[in-house]
């Protein structure tokens, strides 16, 4: 009787492991109808085996306590396997969500890391690190400054400033004084040109003003003369009419006197 229970217990454990593998395969985005049917058949087979164990233990009279503990152990083991399978599948799904499709494909095709490659570029040494789906990294190594090999170029020291003699200092001072004088002469020349231009502008303005005044005076004199001539002509015309009237009046009086003398 214990041997039979041991065989049933091993079969239950093997069945649970098979169910774990099948559910793991089905959760890895390869869900098919045949696998689902096999998983359901395994569940039903496990339940049937547990019921058979319970019936066998209930019919036998020897050691009922052992049979009940074995059945309870099988159910507990199956529940534990199901819990482990569920947690494993959920963790695997979360990991698959975090990984990108390109990273998954690269990890499937390139399982081995690339060997490190070293390139030489003059004084630099470039070391290629592990290539990943996100990019490529390099390590650049420069030669130490203490490398005194004949291939390395020798850096020339900057030329030292030589001391200036008294004559050179004197020449520089004279050149600076000459430049200062030239600059002052240029500034004075510019000021003189500016003043000359101002004088020219002022003279031109005065000349234009004088011309305008002269033209205005000439026009005014012409108008005054013209008006004077017109006034004199008008007065002369009035005097002429008055003289004519006086002559006419004198002639009328003379004719009247003559008619009176003739009639008297």
Automatic annotation (TrEMBL):
Family the entry assigns: Belongs to the stathmin family.
Spell out the PROSITE patterns in the cross-references.
STATHMIN_1 (PS00563), STATHMIN_2 (PS01041), STATHMIN_3 (PS51663)
Q: What is the lineage of its organism?
A: Eukaryota, Metazoa, Chordata, Craniata, Vertebrata
Keyword hit for Signal: yes
**Gene3D superfamilies (alphabetical):** 6.10.280.30
Name of the gene: STMN3
Q: Which organism is it from?
A: Python bivittatus
Pfam families linked: Stathmin
Q: Does the keyword Transcription apply?
A: no
Recorded superkingdom: Eukaryota
CC per GO annotation: cytoplasm; neuron projection
* Signal peptide range: 1-16
Low complexity bias located where?
A: 144-158
* GO annotation, biological process: microtubule depolymerization; neuron projection development; regulation of microtubule polymerization or depolymerization
Q: What is this protein called?
A: Stathmin-3
Outline the segment boundaries, as ranges, of region: Disordered: 142-162
């Amino acid at each position: 009787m214990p041997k039979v229970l041991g065989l049933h217990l091993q079969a239950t454990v093997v069945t649970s492991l098979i169910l774990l593998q099948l559910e793991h395969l089905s959760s890895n985005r390869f869900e098919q109808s045949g696998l689902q049917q096999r998983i359901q058949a395994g569940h039903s087979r496990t339940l049937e085996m547990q019921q058979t164990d319970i019936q066998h233990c209930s019919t036998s009279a020897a050691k009922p306590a052992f049979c009940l503990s074995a059945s309870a152990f099988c159910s507990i083991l199956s529940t534990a396997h199901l819990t482990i399978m569920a947690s494993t599948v959920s963790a695997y799904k979360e990991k698959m969500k975090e990984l990108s499709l390109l990273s998954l494909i690269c990890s499937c095709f390139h399982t081995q890391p690339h060997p490190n490659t070293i390139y030489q570029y003059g004084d630099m040494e470039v070391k290629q690190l592990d290539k990943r789906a996100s990019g490529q990294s390099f390590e650049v190594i420069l030669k130490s400054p203490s490398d005194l090999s004949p291939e390395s170029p020798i850096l020339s020291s900057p030329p030292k400033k030589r001391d200036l003699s008294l004559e050179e200092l004197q020449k520089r001072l004279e050149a600076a004084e000459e430049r200062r004088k030239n600059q002052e002469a240029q500034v004075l020349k510019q000021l003189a040109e500016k003043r000359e231009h101002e004088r020219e502008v002022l003279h031109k303005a005065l000349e234009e003003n004088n011309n305008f005044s002269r033209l205005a005076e000439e026009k005014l004199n012409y108008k005054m003369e013209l008006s004077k001539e017109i006034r004199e002509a008008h007065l002369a015309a009035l005097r002429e009419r008055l003289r004519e009237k006086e002559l006419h009046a004198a002639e009328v009086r003379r004719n009247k006197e003559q008619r009176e003398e003739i009639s008297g």
